[in-house]
User: Which sequence fits this backbone?
């Protein structure tokens, strides 16, 4: 039994999911009032825009979470 949701792990702290209507992911921000996570959503009718926004968020996360020296050495 499923929930009708597909998930894709894109990067550390970036999980994109869809219910077939919208793509959603965490913006990296918390609500100042409730301290709950704030999410963004893009309709599945515009996957190119959603993909650009996901790529932008991944770039933000990559800059924030640089690999350790030992991992960076193995990547080159």
Assistant:
């Amino acid at each position: 039994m499923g929930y009708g949701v597909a998930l894709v792990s894109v990067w550390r702290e970036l999980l994109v999911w869809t219910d077939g209507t919208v793509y959603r992911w965490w913006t990296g921000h918390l609500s100042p009032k409730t301290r709950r996570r704030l999410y963004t959503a893009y309709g599945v009718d515009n996957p190119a825009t959603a993909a650009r926004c996901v790529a932008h968020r991944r770039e933000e996360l990559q800059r924030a979470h640089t690999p350790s020296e030992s991992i960076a050495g193995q990547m080159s």
Summary: Strands lie at 6-11, 14-18, 22-30, 37-43.
